[in-house]
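Q: Joint fold for the lines below.
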Amino acid sequence: MDALMSWLQAYLAENSIFTLQTLSYYGEGLVTTVQLVFLSLVIGLVAAVPLAIGRGSKRPWVKWPIFAYTYVFRGTPLLVQLYLIYYGVVFVEGIQETWLWVILEEPFVPALIAFTLNTAAYTTEIFHGAIKATSRGEIEAARAYGMSRALMMRRIVLPSAFRRALPAYGNEVIFMLHASAIASVVTIMDLTGAARFVYARFYAPFEAFLFVAAIYLCLTFAILYVFRALERRLLAHLKPAGG
Amino acid sequence: MIDLHGYGPRLLEGALITIELALLSLVLAIVLGLLTASAKMSRSWLAHRIGTLYTTIIRGVPDLVLMMLLFFGGQIGVNMITDWLYYQFDVDIFININEFVAGVVTIGLIFGAYMGETFRGAFLAVDSGQIEAGRAYGMGPWLVFRRVRFPQMMRHALPGISNNWMVLLKTTALVSVIGLSDMVRVASEASKATREPFTFMMIVAIIYLLIASVSEWTFARLQKRYNIGYGEAE
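A: Joint structure:
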């Protein structure tokens, strides 16, 4: 480890842009990006499951509001949603006197809210499609066993729907990682924010942005790898026999 | 009525810029997509490699980072080339990369990669018997492409193109970050000046939804046109 550090220091000594100082900006940016993406994905995922079930409900007062929500959030740019929440939160009557203001003052929370609402909308549609694709025979069999709707959802529909949704959800995770670059617009020092800072400081667009592009590329490949492995495990029963 | 504080005309101009930008990028993306698809399907090892490298890298990096790289780096790169031309050959030219061109080029480059994947799948879905039949009629490769492969490929590609277009439309919002006065930029300036973010952002959101709805309708009609001869089932 010490040898590695001294080698790194020796290498960086010849370099005017990638000093330990700027690398630490990128490191902090990486942490912020991962936090933002991970938190919004987890909260979005938890919210999307009931929303997806409701989206397929027969009751119009359950179905239509959820449809309207996903339509609006999937039909408008994330940047507009972020601006709306980031600028809009200031104007909520009396919010600056409450304890909420302490956390909302930081741009991190408005960004997290915007990202979560956005990914929840996309994930809802992905799960809704997967639930709808459940084969009729499975549902009829569950009914014939006398399962209630809740039990059928829990034991039959959701487990297979989650598996079917896996490839599409993997794309959504990568999409969120890339979309999170927008956070730098509202002064968050995420990976892209760090790159913009280094660019502005040294006027070196190639070094600053190519380096950050390489980090994003590695993150993307890591996510792809994880989802491939998950798909291999969870979708093994769908593979052609003898493959 | 909603009070726009005189930002109405500028907002409308911004909306026009958004639409122009989106349409021009779409054209560039389709051209690049066709080229990429042919490169990836070609027998040449090099062309295949270049096509794969392009789609992998573009799809692995955020749009905003690519846009900043091209916008901030593009001008320096172009200046280096023109400087070199000046010192070597005494050619004095100055090329200024404006935000609009940078926006179109970046968005076109990004979605060219996505379109490439869409077109590749669609070309592979065309029955090879059709191509052989075209050849048997004595058609050259270009005529086979224009009369047989392209029209049948479009039937398979349209849903993918439609998806890509919807994402592309929303990606245009990012040009506001590099300083182009599209409707998002106008709305964010207006929000700060008038302290009424809800009004302006809501209007922008509604315009995006309107454009998306019109596009959906257009694509449904196109799909019908290219499905001629395949019955109502699709």
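Q: Anything notable?
A: DSSP finds eight helices and no strands in chain B. The domain at 13-182 of chain B is CATH 1.10.3720.10 (MetI-like fold).
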